[in-house]
Model the fold of this input.
Amino acid sequence: MTLLRDHETQAKPPTRKKRLFFRSFAVIAALAIVWAVTGIFLYVAPASDEPQHADVLFVLGPPDQRMVYAEQLMQQGYAPTLAVSSPIGKDGRFTADICGAHRPYRVICFHSDPFTTQGEARELRSLSQQYGWKSANVLTAQFHVSRARVIVRRCYAGDLHMIAERMDLPVFSFTDPTYSWAYQYLYQTAAFVKVAIHPDC
Done:
């Protein structure tokens, strides 16, 4: 039995460009999956510490809803001093509400230079030398904990506990794109690259 195929209808093997395209797509898809899974452990559910009794509760900026959790920890007696990273308004005053409030514990507000996580880590080192702090609970958002731990540990040699303020973010947000996991994945990953390039305190 002989099978004849018309030359025009015979299946043609994929061209070199098509093979390259499919291979590139497969590599990109695999990397995207790895990135997404890795992000779960770095941003969504990062390794964080339970709050411990320490010399200071050090809150990384911005002083947003995390301040509610910070004050709860202070009320529970986890530290005698609350240090808050705060922007400065046009009037030259700290914008964080707690900076002008009276509390039964010491409140220190500061504006690091530069006003970045690295600047805040340097401020923790400086204030620790000034006040003799040997231990610190450092509070920040959960998606920031992994990167902040690396940066703070480069500057601060004391007993460090990285505390995560848990946030329930949508995957995407059209009303506030920065308030979404999609944005945080992109931003935090880019920031991690910067941390790798600049390994100093």
